Amino acid sequence: MTRSPHIRGLIALAVVALSLYVAITMPVHLGLDLRGGTQIVLETRSTAAVDADGEATDRTVEVLRGRIDALGVAEPTIARSGSDRIVVELPGLQDPRKAADVLGRTAQLTFHQVLGTATDDHDVPERLSKRPREQVMADESGRLLRLQAASLTGRDVERAAAGFDQQGGGGWHVTVDFKGSGQKGWAGLTGAAACHGDGDPARRVAIVLDDKIISSPQVATSGACRSGITGGSTQITGTFDDTEAKELALLINGGALPVPVETVEQRTVGPTLGAQAITASAWAAVIGTALTSLFIIAVYRIVGVLATVALACYGLISYAALAGLGATLTLPGLAGFVLAIGMAVDANVLVFERAREEYASRHRATPRSSLTAGFRRAFSAIADSNITTLIAAGLLFFLASGPVRGFGVTLGIGVLASMVSALVITRALADYALTHPGLRRSPHLSGLAHTGAVRARLTRTKPNLMRHPRRWLAASGAVVVLAASGIVVRGLDFGVEFTGGRLIEYSTAAPVDPDRARTALADAGFPRAVVQTSGEDQLAVRTPPLTNTQAAAITDTVTDLAGRADKVRDESIGPSLGKELRHGALVALLVALGAQLIYLAARFRWLLGTSAIAALAHDVVILIGIFAWLGKPVDGVFLAALLTVIGYSVNDSVVVFDRIRELGRRDRETPFARIANQALVQTLPRTVNTGMGAAFILTALVVLGGDTLTDFALALLIGLVVGTCSSMFTATPLAVEMHHRTQLARVLA
After folding, report:
1. 652-673 mean pLDDT
2. What rounded mean pLDDT belongs to the chain?
3. pLDDT score at 707
4. Residue-by-residue DSSP string for 557-586
5. 540 - beta bridge partners?
6. Percentage of the chain surpassing pLDDT 70?
7. Helix 54-71 and helix 96-104, axial crossing angle in degrees, nearest 10
């Protein structure tokens, strides 16, 4: 037994030392929403010739990697996601139009001999049915040309380069060099065309990119019939500017995509927004942690100081884990990191409150012996409550995407780090501190030798909170009805992730009237644009799906109104992905409730598990209803908050039910309602103190988090209050009422 404190101390020291080393030597990778840049999600499409399977997607990734490298973006990342999606991240890129055009083009390059003109549009289908190896396309002037099947493709090209012809008219062109058999093929193609007279359309060669003629030059008189142009090189000319010529050369050099791709998601975040989010979260973390620490020290004295030191170690361990695992820290993840600081207090509070109970109930108890007993008796509640939160974090990781998935990673790391902080570091510090002679002489300084203000008041009043459980249930039902009516009356403002479309946010030089902006956008050809303002200089425009050119037109319109408009965020979600994300959100919510029910039923019994799930559903409806009444958006970040609230709400119910189970095993004669009331009263100090600790953090996020974090923190703060109340006045009364009905049914049977 005497060796255990030393072993814990060595483990704690090793964990902190390793975390410090990792934190110093390995930086954390920031997501694009924190450092600024563009993320594009592409989805491969099957064709009649090629299936968009995993192998085709892998080959597409390699082609796209070559194109991205040619763009010159620093530290780009490209990775396959699932069997048919590719995620491209381009840090620092604020104008996604060029990147989207380059990445989204299939770039199927072909060279054709022109057979003549198609003079009659109505004659084209009949002619093509008789000559299946012919194609009809419009040239640069719009004239229809009949083309022979492709003689050469992009695979025959060795390299391409953009150039400027200073002597022949000063235009841009692209020089194409053929390789291997392509050189002979080019000579044969131009040789066949050279056999036709000057001015004859059949003397032309059509260069086609993605089924569109980009150039159809006539073979010069220097090209002899049947000999053609030798040397294996040609120039693609046209009305190119420098950007178009360089982009065409880039596409040719990168090669054609094995299968077509479609942009299903596109996000652009300005660097100032990311910097503001980091600064706001840092201030929220500092101020929230300081307030939480002061509260814990005021309530628990010396052990509160030890818990504060353990909280600092928790932050270090979490940061080191993120860096060591190579996880990406996103904006919701940063908020989750701050939130987990408040949640880390819970395990310490559980232990300290059990230690206080042990000190008050045992004769000749010491602070150290009471704390040892507190750790032992609180372990099951700590384990159950953290596992339920880990379930929520796991669901976020496996069922969510993008920044919300990053929040799940951060939350999961935070939960594990909080357990190490409370069960190892706090206990190792307490093992040494509580053996100090000064604390032996003055045990009240430890913070464990008195009951605390909440417990003292409960001891004096001896409330019977479960005397009328139906009244609590009626009050809960009334609140649910009021919240649900908001969903019916106001409806839900689904974010662009769930509806599909485009959301562009601007920081304007001067305030812009929303009605004036709507009128201007309607005049510009966007009558369905939804305009919202927040603050004096923030304007958001949401529309159905747009091209990048149309989005640029919206930016020009807003700039004309405001004088100056800086784009701080640009999100584009395809309709198919929006439907998929909406379906995924519903699945995540149902799976979360089902997983919690299964775990609670396994750990407790179906009666308590069902009561907890009913309380969870109660919390979900109320939180969604409040957001409906407030007109707040229901988006992916809100989903992250909702699933976190589910995990947090279960924590409170688990603590109460764990005490009900303990008291029920000890006394099988006392009526269930009295045991439930006793458990509720005994755990109420922990509920209040934990809630206060988390409230400080969340309030700091609401006040200091800025526009990007306010709604997220507000959802968590509402969920904290609702979840705390529902565990006491919904889950527990429902368990009492269900137990009473079960007993009555047995008697009547």
Report:
1. 87
2. 82
3. 67
4. HHHHHHS-EEEEEEEEE-HHHHHHHHHHHH
5. 505, 532
6. 92
7. 140
| Residue from 41, 44, 39 nearest 83 by CA | 44
Short-list 634, 652, 653, 654, CA closest to 715: 634
Q: b/e per residue, 468-490, with b = 16+ CB within 10 A?
A: ebeebbeebeebbeebeebbeee
Give the pLDDT confidence score for residue 328 in this predicted structure: 77
Amino acid at 543: T
CA dihedral 699, 705, 706, 707 (to 10 degrees): -80
Own/partner contacts of 181-184, CB < 8 Å, gap of 24 or more, are: 181/156, 182/152, 182/155, 182/156, 182/157, 182/158, 182/232, 183/230, 183/231, 183/232
- Give me Rg for the CA atoms of the chain: 34
User: Can you tell me which residue has the tokens 């030392």?
Assistant: 17
Q: Is 74 helix (H, G, I), strand (E, B) or coil?
A: coil
For the whole model, what pTM was predicted? 0.75
User: Can you read off the two tokens belonging to residue 357?
Assistant: 């109970």
Instruction: Please state, in angstroms and rounded to a whole number, the distance separating the CA atoms of residues 626 and 484.
Output: 9
Helix (H) or strand (E) holding 722: helix 707-726
Q: How far is the C-alpha of 111 from the C-alpha of 189, rounded, in Å?
A: 9
Q: Give the model's pLDDT for residue 129.
A: 46
Higher pLDDT, 654 or 18: 18
Q: What would the pLDDT profile of 404-455 be if each residue is shown by its tens digit?
A: 676 778 888 888 888 888 889 998 998 888 887 877 777 788 878 877 777 7
Residues 711 and 696: their CA atoms lie apart, in Å, by 16
